[in-house]
Design a protein that fits this description.
Helices cover about 75% and strands about 0% of the residues. It contains ten helices and no strands. Helix 4 packs across helix 5, helix 5 packs antiparallel against helix 8 and helix 6 runs antiparallel to helix 7. The radius of gyration is 20 Å and the shape is globular. The two termini are about 25 Å apart.
């Protein structure tokens, strides 16, 4: 495996991470949901998705979107050697959807728990006693204090995506650093294994 190939796999990981982060952010429940009592269905869905392994989610997504049910997307990624990861955007849809569905439940539950804890705090109660509108209390006083744990969990999920999605990469033939690590170990390619280990360790530390 050449340095250019490793570089493309790292670029593919960065591209997938940014895309999944954007998709997760757009799919998170509203911070006002716990306060409004509208989070029951999202909590049940999050529990169901969190209980499902990534390969099960990927298989279900493939059956629904890449077979005779709805043949909307190709079942695998078809990126030619030495080509950029975004050269097959349609093929990247299924692995990115799978990763988003795998990551979102954990992040959304942290958002919900943090928001409920903040809404029970003294300064939020004081803001309500001052007569501030509920929308102002939620978005100006509660939400900024509930974002911290969310970013921590999203950062941990970035590290998880660096090394913990080999099954998803294998399922969809996605050229990520997880498969590169597997191939390096299989081929006894010590420099590749050392570089990817340092890269993944740096992501965890940072």
């Amino acid at each position: 495996m050449t340095a250019d190939q490793i570089g493309l796999k790292v670029v593919g990981f960065i591209f997938a991470t940014i895309t999944v982060a954007v998709m997760v952010t757009t799919r998170l429940p509203s911070p006002a949901a716990p306060a409004l009592g509208a989070d029951t269905s999202s909590s049940v869905l999050s529990l169901v998705l969190a209980a499902m392994p990534e390969f099960v989610v990927g298989a279900l997504v493939t059956v629904l979107l890449a077979t005779n049910v709805w043949h909307l997307l190709p079942p695998t990624v078809r990126i030619r050697p030495h080509h950029a990861p975004w050269s097959d955007l349609k093929g990247l849809a299924l692995p990115l959807i799978t990763l988003t569905l795998a990551v979102t439940p954990y992040v959304s539950r942290v958002v919900r728990a943090a928001m409920i804890e903040v809404l029970e705090s003294d300064y939020v109660e004081m803001a309500r006693l001052k007569g501030l509108p509920e929308r102002t209390v939620l978005w100006r006083h509660a939400t900024p204090n509930a974002i911290g744990p969310t970013f921590q969990v999203m950062a941990l999920n970035v590290a998880y995506m660096a090394a913990g999605v080999v099954v998803v990469e294998s399922l969809f033939n996605f050229p990520g650093i997880g498969l590169a690590m597997r191939d390096g170990v299989r081929d006894h390619n010590i420099p590749v294994v050392q570089f990817l280990s340092m890269f993944i360790s740096t992501i965890y530390v940072v």
